[in-house]
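Researcher: We plan to redesign the surface later, but first we want a full-length starting point. Tokens attached.
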């Protein structure tokens, strides 16, 4: 990795840590947390490529795990607490798998939408939307599966997933498109 890439990766990791350790990254809403932690992951993936993006996704997962296990100043989601109590391994999978797939989906959607062009502004909104959409669908989907596997009471879980989760996921997707597209375009313009 060259110096520029290493420096930018460190900057994006610092942003993930800043967001993950403050209420700016995980915004508590009743029973779920809305996240902005995907933003440095999406931007980093689109600017630096898939390998640094995967590292950023890992950092995102680590921040999520710290919150899930109550080791962060950010409030633990009340929906994750039963999974942590019953199976810490499944809780770790819940924290890391969706987050590690955010850069993969961004990268693949960008490659498909750009039709092989190295830098395509028209492809950015699609890739920007793919990250939080992947995170929301996989995170809440795995949560539902794990509740079932562990025999946890999931009577109200579907309503929360489709209600708050759907609204939150839509909001995160719009936020990603609105912020990521101009940030990545600006970074490309200055040669990042």
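Model: Full-length starting sequence:
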């Amino acid at each position: 990795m060259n110096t520029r890439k290493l420096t930018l990766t460190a900057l994006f990791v610092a942003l993930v840590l800043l967001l993950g350790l403050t209420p700016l990254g995980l915004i508590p809403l009743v029973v779920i947390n809305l996240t902005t932690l995907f933003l440095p992951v999406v931007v980093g993936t689109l600017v630096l490529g898939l390998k640094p993006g995967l590292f950023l996704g890992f950092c995102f997962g680590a921040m999520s795990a710290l919150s899930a296990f109550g080791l962060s100043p950010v409030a633990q989601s009340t929906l994750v607490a039963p999974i942590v109590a019953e199976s810490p391994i499944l809780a770790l999978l819940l924290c890391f798998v969706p987050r590690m797939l955010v850069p993969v989906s961004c990268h693949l959607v960008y490659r498909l939408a750009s039709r092989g062009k190295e830098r395509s502004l028209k492809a950015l909104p699609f890739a920007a939307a793919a990250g939080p959409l992947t995170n929301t669908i996989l995170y809440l989907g795995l949560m539902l599966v794990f509740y079932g596997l562990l025999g946890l009471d999931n009577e109200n879980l579907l309503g929360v997933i489709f209600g708050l989760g759907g609204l939150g996921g839509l909001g995160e997707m719009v936020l990603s498109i609105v912020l990521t597209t101009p940030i990545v375009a600006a970074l490309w313009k200055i040669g990042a």
